[in-house]
Amino acid sequence: MRLGIVGAGFVANFHVTALKSVRGVEVVGVTALKGAEELAGRIRREDLGKGKVFANIADMSREVDTIAIFIPNFARIQTVEEIAANSSNLKMVICEKPLARNVTEARKMVDIADKSGFKTAYFENQIFMPSVLKARGQLVNCENAMGPCHLVRSAEEHGGPHESWFWDPTRQGGGVLCDMGCHSIAVGWFMLTPAGQSPTYLRPAQVSAQTKLLKWGLGTWKAKLLERGVDYNKTPAEDYAIGTVDFTNPDTGQKVTAQFTDSWMYDAPGLRLLMEAFGPGFSYTVDSLQSPAGIFISDAAAETANAELALEKSQSSRGALVLQPNEADLYGYVGEWQDALNGYRAGENASLGWKYGLEIVRLVMASYMSAERGAVINLQDPKVLEELETYIPLIQQGRGGEVL
Ligand SMILES: NC(=O)c1ccc[n+]([C@@H]2O[C@H](COP(=O)([O-])OP(=O)(O)OC[C@H]3O[C@@H](n4cnc5c(N)ncnc54)[C@H](O)[C@@H]3O)[C@@H](O)[C@H]2O)c1
Question: pTM of this prediction?
Answer without folding.
Answer: 0.97
